[in-house]
C-alpha cells in the first residue's frame, strides 16, 4: 500500500486559495501537465464529468485558478494565483472547459488534453483530498503517480530495445520501472536519470520522446518504502516495550517514511508552526479581499474578548479567535497550511495554537503537539479520506477535530492512551457531517464548522483527561467514517446541490457574487 506522509498527506500543502482539493490539487496536476509538455503549451481542453463534484464547483472553488497556475509552472503559494486566468491568457495559452460524460469513477476527476504545434498529450488525474492527487492515465496508459518521485517517460516504437537497455544500464538502486506498456515506459526514482543516460536513450533509434516530470510533493517516496506501523492498533503493539510518547512515535514514523532524520522532521514541523502562527497574526490584523462572503470577523471578536464582553472561557474564546483568523486569511487568498485541508485549515491549528498560547507553552511543545496531530491524520489518510467530495465535511472538519483532540491532550500533560481516546471521541462526534457551502464558496458554513470542530476537540480532550471511556477503538471509528461518507448523498458532498447551498439566501448570495465577477471582467 501507499504510506501517507505527515507533510505530504496530512499537514500541507502551504498554499493559497479556498480549497486544497480544488486549488492545491489542481495546481499540482497542472504542474505535471506543464512538465509533460516541456513548458510549451498552446491550447488545453479540460473535461469534467457532469456527475462529479467539479462540474458545479470548478470555477468558484478554485480548480480553474489552480490549474492555470500549474500550467504556468507556479507553486501553490504563488501570490499571482488570484490572477492566474489573466496570466494564462497573457501567455497565449487557449483554454477550453467542457462538462462532458467521461465515465469518471471519482468525483474529482480531471481529463486534460494538451497541445502545441509539435505534440499532443492527455492526462487523467484525480484530487484525493487535502491537496493530494493521483495521475491515473497518461496517453491512454494506466499509471499511478502521486507526485512524490521524479518521473521519466520514455516513448518508443520498440519496447524490447528499451527493456534491454534498461536491464544492462547502471541506473541506481532506487529506480523503479513503474509501467512498461504499449510504447511507453514510466520510470520513478529519487532523482532524474543521469544526463549521460538520457543522451544514450535519445540516441536509440526507436525512442521518439523522453519526458521528465518533477515531484510536486515535499517528501519523496523511495522504492520499497517501509513504515513501523500504519494503524493505531499496530502503533500500540509496536510501542509495547518501547514506551515512547505519541509525538516520538510520530517522529519515528515520518523519519522512516520520508527517509529523513528525526531532527529534520522536527525542523519541518517547526517551519509549519511558523506559517500557522503568521496566519493567525495576519488574520487578527484584519484581511481584505473583494471576492468573498464573510469579512474580518475575528478582529471584533478579539476586541470584545479583550474588553471582557464575551462569556468567560479564555481558552475556548482564544481558540475561536484563532480559528476565525486562519479561515479569514484563507478566504482572502493569504498563505495557509492545509491541515488537513484548506476547507478545515482553521480547526486543528487554531485549537492547538490556541491551547498552547493559553497555557503559556513553548514552541517546542507546540511542535510536538502538531506532530501528534499529524500522526493521527496519517491513520485517517491511510484508511479513510480527507475529501469532502468523497466523505462530506466529517472527512475535513471531523478529521481536524480528531487530530486536534489528541494534540490538546499532550499539551495538557495527558498520556498516549488519553490522546487516542480523545481522538476517537472527537471523530465519533463528527460522523455524518455534510458539506454544503453557501454561495459555492468555501467560507460558510465552513467557518462555523471549523469552530465547532475545534470546540469538539477541546471538549473531548478534557473528557479524555478525566478518563471518559471512548468505547470504540480509533481504527474502527476511522473505518466507520469512511463507510458513513459513502452513504451521504452526493448532493451533500461539496457539489453545491443540496443542504444550505440551495437555500434561497445562498442562491441570492451566489447570484450577487456571479454578477460582481461578470461586471468586473467586462
UniProtKB/TrEMBL annotation:
Family: Belongs to the iron-sulfur dependent L-serine dehydratase family.
Name of the protein in question: L-serine ammonia-lyase
Needed cofactors: [4Fe-4S] cluster
Pfam family, one: SDH_alpha
Domain of life, per lineage: Bacteria
Associated pathway: Carbohydrate biosynthesis; gluconeogenesis
Annotated keywords: 4Fe-4S, Gluconeogenesis, Iron, Iron-sulfur, Lyase, Metal-binding
Enzyme Commission identifier(s): 4.3.1.17
Domain Serine dehydratase-like alpha subunit per the UniProt entry, residue ranges: 241-500
Catalytic activity: L-serine = pyruvate + NH4(+)
InterPro entries the UniProt entry points to: ASB_dom_sf, Fe-S_L-Ser, Ser_deHydtase-like_asu
Gene Ontology molecular-function annotations: L-serine ammonia-lyase activity
